[in-house]
Amino acid sequence: MFGVAEIENETVLKDLVSQPEFKGRNYQIVHYNSPDDRGVDVAFIYNPKYFKVLASQPLNVPLKNDDGSPRHTRDVLWVYGLLDGEPVHIFVNHWPSRRGGEEASAPGRALAASISKAKADSIMAVDPNAKIVIMGDLNDDPVNASCAKVIGALGDAAKVKPGGFFNPWMKLYKSGIGTLAYNDSWNLFDQIMISYGWLSHEQKGFFYSKPVIFNKDYMCQHGGQYDGYPLRTFSGNTYLGGYSDHFPVYIMLLKEKK
């Protein structure tokens, strides 16, 4: 199962899952049109062999312009289902960009973060060990307030308590590793944060194992000023034939097999 961002419409998703390489997996889609001014959405794709959707909902992020009028951005997508029989909550996010400057735009990302956090808190008020995933292109690094303060995600799993969140990307970011590069420095905007319930290895269900940045050689630019950066499709009006200006990320989950 995976979350995707910068999706123009459901047709794009249907085209993707109908590709010959994917067709045999019978991938299904959860998608809602969001009010974003640029027309981009988030979505969730899953294999029904392993995941069964029980409920889903777009959660509005009520941004405002300086004059108080609504500023339309991406909804947060909440999906609730069963992963091999286990209840799991997924939040797919694409928080507001840093346009206008990191500091000036930070309140918008804090607000977007609070939408997932409020719903997650209501879930964990009933079950502090609930298995929750908050993922997406957050336009912030693990150390920024939206992740570290609003979500309250810690970089040390041993310090996470019931009702809390672990951020597996904190150590990678602090060691200089990222998913996108800008002005000769790396950011790690693409994150998957997980709740306390995933951390214990002494359980019957799935537990967290490790984070991975998927940055294969063919996805990187070679030579020139941007050597090693993600190979994007376009640079301005120049077609580069790449994939994205971000590397995708995933986490590996394990389960004991009797």
Question: What is this entry, summarized?
Answer:
The chain is α+β, with helices and mostly antiparallel strands and 258 residues long.
Offer a few descriptive terms.
16 strands; three-stranded antiparallel beta sheet; alpha+beta; 258 residues; seven-stranded mixed beta sheet; Deoxyribonuclease I, Chain A; single chain
Description:
- By secondary structure, the chain is of the alpha+beta class.
- It has a single domain (2-254), classed as 4-Layer Sandwich (Deoxyribonuclease I, Chain A), CATH 3.60.10.
- 19% of the residues lie in helices and 31% in strands.
- It is built from five helices and 16 strands.
- It has helices spanning 10-17, 20-23, 102-126, 145-151, 170-174, and strands spanning 2-7, 28-31, 41-46, 51-59, 76-83, 86-94, 132-137, 153-154, 165-166, 180-182, 185-187, 190-195, 207-213, 234-235, 238-239, 249-254.
- The strands form five sheets. The protein has a seven-stranded mixed sheet. It has a three-stranded antiparallel sheet with strand order 1-3-2, with helices on one face. It has a two-stranded antiparallel ribbon with strand order 10-11.
- Helix 3 packs parallel to helix 4.
- The two termini are 24 Å apart.
- The model has no long low-confidence stretch (mean pLDDT 95).
Helix fraction? 10-25%
Mean pLDDT score: 95
* Assigned CATH superfamily: Endonuclease/exonuclease/phosphatase
The CATH topology name reads Deoxyribonuclease I, Chain A
| Beta-strand percent range | 25-35%
Major sheet attributes = 7 strands, mixed
- What is the CATH class designation? Alpha Beta
**Helix and strand run:** EHHEEEEEHEHEEHEEEEEEE
The strand line-up of the biggest sheet is 4-5-6-7-12-9-8
Radius of gyration: 18 Å
- The span between the termini is 24 Å
| Count of distinct strands | 16
Low-confidence stretches: none
Please identify the structural class as seen in this structure.
Answer: alpha+beta
Number of domains: 1
Global geometry: globular
- The appropriate CATH architecture is 4-Layer Sandwich
Oligomeric state of the chains in view = single chain
Total number of helical segments?
5
